[in-house]
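User: Can you predict the 3D structure for this chain?
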Amino acid sequence: MEFTAQQIADLIQGKVEGDANATVNTFAKIEEGKKGAISFLANIKYLHHIYDTESSVVLVDDAMTFDKPVKPTLIRVKNSYEAVAKLMQMYESMKPRRKGIDSTAYIHPTAKIGEDCYIGPFVAIGPNVVIGDRCVFHPHVTIGQNATIGENTEIYSNAVVYHDCKVGNNCVLHAGCVIGADGFGFAPTEHGYDKIPQLGIVTIEDNVEIGANTCVDRSTMGSTYVRKGVKLDNLVQIAHNTDIGENTVMSSQVGIAGSTKVGKWCMFGGQVGIAGHITIGDKVSLGAQSGVPGSIKDGESLIGTPPVPLRKFFQIAAIEKRLPDLYHQIGEMQKTIDLLQEEIKQLKNQN
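Assistant: Here is the predicted structure, written as structure tokens:
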């Protein structure tokens, strides 16, 4: 597929500067540009690449200025990062979707498969499963009995959706993710640990994307919820009975303990750990490796363990660097105090 700069500008409400008939047929990073590619420039740190990139077209922000002429055709938009994301979504949607059921797939006779689905090699679909229209299941996907999968959902190889769990429309489950494994529930006894049956399910709402090898555990009773629009990176752990609010995003290796409620539009950096049975408000941002032992109010931006506001965190970090010197200074001060106390004691004895 090939498009002109003007056609692209029309799609994203942009303005062309340069050759409106310049054509592109692929995407490339600006520093790796080549003829026929479209790139974008959103971060000022990459500004110098605009002068030597080989890309034919570059998306830039309306407000961006340049010190000297540039070779590629520019398309100016309000937000180049959002614009290139929109273009890539359009490009992906234009690709023909595979259809049909591979001869090696196993589908239980009671399962219901929607129209225009693709069921790849060695997929296993259990009893009473309901699959919506236009779903794509890559090789070795397993769907447990009574599970439901909405329309336009894509599940990559070796992902598992356990029995009774629900996945919504327009979702993406990446390779190796597990939806509905047992929550970590054990009762200590004098003989060891007795397993607490996990009788609930997992409910994944619409437009959710879940990364490779991420796990969302089924609830003890009721449901674990991942609400619409949530995006989970690879290697994330969502424990039983949690409720992850709409449009929340989590980076790699985040861990959410059981029965915790996370609000809407939250952003968690890599390796954030959140204790169980607490509430995180809406629009909370947590920096990487934050450890959260208690509830957080709406709108907080925190980092550290326990988390503190960003400004305070950096003040603490600056002081920590000086601790060896401060420790030495305190030691010298203590020596001086000891000498003064000894002199005072001797003067008292003389009197």
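The chain has a mean pLDDT of 95. Residues 285 and 301 are 5 Å apart (CA to CA).
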